[in-house]
Amino acid sequence: MELISLKIPGAFKAIPAPHRDERGFLVRTYDREIMARQGLVTDWVQEIHSFSAKKGTVRGLHFQRPPHSETKLVRAAQGRIFIVLLDLRDGSPTFGRWDSAVLSIENLEILYAPKGLAMGMCTLTNDCSLLYKMDTAYNPDSARTVRWDDPELGIVWPLSGAPVISEKDAKAPTLKEFLAHEDALVI
To answer: CATH no. for residue 55?
Structure first.
């Protein structure tokens, strides 16, 4: 498994080395020793499975405020999914900037997102499953959302029509609106 740094400091893409044959594949999706050598989180307390039935489903940009900020380890178990990471760490040189990757059952890549990043996704195929480990338990009082299509962020979403989106995500504040009404940033 090779770790490649993304444009956002502390975020990585893990490129696994699957064994493939006529039956399919076998792949290591997590290696505590490799992660620990890089100084990354290795203690996971929850794993979430998100399923989206329709191509063009958008979720996010979601995160939790301190003290419940989450580190996430994310991979696709089915389909192809466009993932966006948005840096919300106070004082970060990449604050307000984003990076993206496509996770799929074909490429088997894994994203590591440190605390302080919001995450969003857009399904590129029908029937997508996303699995993610978190180092902090979900806390609904700390959960926040920044608008996925905030024009100031300039995220280029791979959509060919209107997204399938929740009412909560459709009504989320822009980053500027969020910052104007919240008393602390994600750390």
So the answer is: 2.60.120.10
131, two tokens: 């699995």
In a domain, 143, yes or no: yes
Sign of CA dihedral 101, 104, 109, 111: positive
The H or E element spanning position 168 is helix 167-170
Which residues sit opposite 134 in a β-bridge?
46, 72
17-44 pLDDT, tens digit each: 999 999 999 999 998 999 999 999 999 9
- With respect to residue 152, please indicate whether it lies within any of the assigned structural domains: yes
Asked whether residue 187 is domain-assigned, the answer is: no
User: What pTM, to 2 d.p., does this model score?
Assistant: 0.93
Amino acid at position 140, single letter: P
Residue 186 lies inside a defined structural domain of this protein: no
Domain tally, the chain: 1
pLDDT digits 0-9 by tens, 130-185: 999 999 999 999 999 999 999 999 999 999 999 999 999 999 999 999 998 865 55
Catalytic residue numbers read: 62, 132
